[in-house]
Amino acid sequence: MGLDCRPFNVVLIEPEIPANTGNISRTCAATGARLHLIRPLGFEIDDKHLKRAGLDYWRLLDVSEYDNIEDFFGRNKDACLYFLSTKAPRCYSEMNYPEGAYFVFGKETRGLDESLLREYSERCVRIPMIDEARSLNLSNSVAIVLYEALRQNGFRGLLNLVKRLLPSPERGRAIETAILANL
Q1: Is residue 118 located within the same domain as residue 55?
Q2: Tens of pLDDT along 52-84?
């Protein structure tokens, strides 16, 4: 994947809409994040809508599937978990996310189970929005939080792409410095 750090992890509990998962897959592939899908899924993994949204990024994607939430917890015992919910008390930008953190999202129609929110209350965060809005689109929410975590960690592993694409090392360093100065 070309990253020189521990990748972030996006966890989708029982996702229902294939296009959302496809868009999230593309975001994960483009950022080097790992995708974790917890069954049951509201679609088949080879669904044409899922593949279309992810386009040709599937070869770059590191994806794991789990039978249920217990299977996920059992196989990721030491994971540093953060739970995204409109019911969370803290804004996502108030937390410091270490490399390798796991961002857990609930299904589109119901969000996360209340028992998870109670058990992990100190690790629950929300994306601010007006009171009248029920929620943001799941794929947008994933992108917002994932890029905040990447920003906090200096976009490690991603800014090197700038250097490879530019003709001179000096120009690459100048652009990287300008980007980092604006973080």
Answers
A1: yes
A2: 655 567 778 899 999 999 999 999 999 999 999
> What's the pTM?
0.83
Beta strand spans in the chain (E): 9-13, 34-38, 62-66, 81-84, 90-91, 102-105, 124-126
Q: How much is the average pLDDT of 12-36? A: 93
Distance (Å) of CA 100 to CA 77, 78, 120: 13, 11, 18
Whole domain around residue 27: which residue ranges?
9-152
Q: How far apart are CA 83 and CA 65, in angstroms?
A: 18
Query: What was the pLDDT predicted at 141?
Result: 98
Question: Nearest 10 degrees: CA dihedral of 54, 55, 56, 57?
Answer: -20
The answer as to whether 4 is a domain residue is no
CA distance 160 to 97: 21
Of 59, 49, 71, the C-alpha closest to 28 is 59
